[in-house]
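Recap for those who missed Tuesday's class. We walked through two folding examples back to back. For each one, the amino acid string is listed first and its predicted structure tokens come directly after. Nothing is annotated here on purpose, so try labeling regions yourself before you check the end of the notes.
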Amino acid sequence: MSPDLLLANAATVAQEILLPAAAEVDATGRIPAAHLDALAEADLYGATTSPDLTRIIEILASGCLATTFVWLQHHGLVNRLLHGPQPSFEDGDALTESLRAGTRRAGIVQAGLLPGQPLLTAERAADGWALNGFSPWCTGWGMINDVLVAARIDAGDGTFDTVVWLVIPAIEQPGLTVEPLHLQAVNATSTVALRFDGLHVGDQWSLGTDQYDQVGHAAGKGLRANGSLALGLVARCDAVLAHLTSESPFLERRDKLRTEMDNADDRDLALLRVDSLRLALSAASAVVAASGAASAIAGSTPERLMREATFLMVFGSRPTIKSGLYESLVSAPT
């Protein structure tokens, strides 16, 4: 499908399906299956390699952040299948195609990429791997079929220099315990914590290995994609302000940040992520101020947008983003 048509499809889904139901999704804590089906019918599960993926993320996030958050995790597995070693089980190509069509859906566990002592490790076992440890986040539970897991290989000598990528079914099973989480925003994403206790994964479900120092903490491409969520929230806040005040005060700054992030290297991108979060916080705060007392009502649009801006402060963060955001907030003029 052409890039222009994908962008048009994203805009249609965001405006006609996601946005009208965003308040209900937040209130009920449930994403309708029809939302994910609509994304599949619009070929947006196949947008992994689109040159406009970050714009698509931004457009969808302006409609419903929760739905976009679940859909976004899917692309980790698709990207690995397209660019990494293929699984050795039969019909591996069929798996890739069904994921790109959205008839199968995926999530991701990146606990093995976090800095410091690894939270999730893998040891060689009979015909495969044994996973042990903890993942604080896995999004879309009950809405996804597969999970791409990044775990650090325990070399047995106290080193964990290599990451192995494995695919597991998204079901509770022997060796895998699921702990539901209640999030203060985007709770409809059905995000859970996972505990691994010797979960066996066969070699046929391996998607290869990487050196940790090359992929640790998923910099670069992930930094840019996650930044689009904040820009999408800014667009939604600006639209609310345009309705309340007939002003559109944030779009020019959003457009400038988008261009800067598109052209930034990894170091500058982390700093620009700080700017995008500050802009999202400012835009949500402006909606609260413009709405007045209505903002104090739980579930109101201003209250929800403020919670979502707060959530984005910690989602997909990195040490440089966290410290940069903190410093910018405590040093801001009063």
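Example two. Treat it independently of the first, because the proteins are unrelated.
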Amino acid sequence: MKNLDKKYLEQTASCLMAKDKGILAADESNETAGKRLADIEVANTQENRRLYRELFLGLPGLEKYISGVILFDETFWQKSDSDAPYPQFLSEKNILPGIKIDLGAKDFPGFPGEKLTVGLDDLPERVKKYAENGATFVKWRAVIIIDEKNNLPTPQAIEANADALGRYARICQEAGLVPILEPEVLLNGPHSIAKAEETTTIVLKKVFEKVQEHKVHVPGLILKTSMVIQGDENPDEASPEEIAEATVRVLLQTVPKNIGGVVFLSGGQTPIEASAHLDAIAEKRSLPFEIAFSYARALQGPAMQIWKGKPENVEAARIEFKKRLQLNTLADAGDYDISLEYSD
């Protein structure tokens, strides 16, 4: 087992968790990126996917709002409009380049309806390649499904995914990269906010058990977590205050105080919901670690509807993207108000 450069890992995590900034999740797979493009009637080609990334990464002043960007493999090796490889392009803006390192959530053999994220087999070699080409941090996403009719999630699925997260984190820290651990409890279904809280608590406790078991340096890692929200088919909609209270309770019970930081995923929320809920959590001011946002669609979705793949729409789309960045920066400080959504 290699020694870790703990100081370097902590410094990188601290840069990622810089105050008044978030981490942009630009790591949609080619298939998912294709769905986003299809929504605006744009063909899913390699160049159109690059233009999709360029729309956001090329925003002048992006570094005022974003500390790091999680890239997908294809984007990592592509070049910006200025002909610089994207990791270099971001580094020159003082934005840390990161990479989604897992190979996707696959059907979990023997456990119908559940997923296990794969990609550990050749992870040391892949991590080394990305580190040599400019990556400073990595991300691995696990998918946890709540299905009360079928008694999901099972303890086995939670155990297997948590163990993979722990193993991944140690491998990446040995390569000098800060791991982001993303155990996402999906919003899909009719479950209550109480069930979401119960499940998220169990999942995060198991994740940090595995983090300890695999001797991961906690101050040199970041948790990317779901907010505690009822299922999207549940008509009993919780208020931002209730969501914040449940989320903070879970984090205080499960997350080590010395963690490098915690960022929230938007996972099925609308852009306004993601901002309002983050603001309500930030207003609690009761967490012992830094928090921030790490959104994809909640930042990019409205701008995509303006862009529609047309060069003449880039400027207007970037104005909308910048607005969402500004609003979430305010939310991260507990200073967001929904009235700001409707002001110029």
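Answers for example two:
Residues 193-213 form the longest helix (21 residues).
The radius of gyration is 19 Å.
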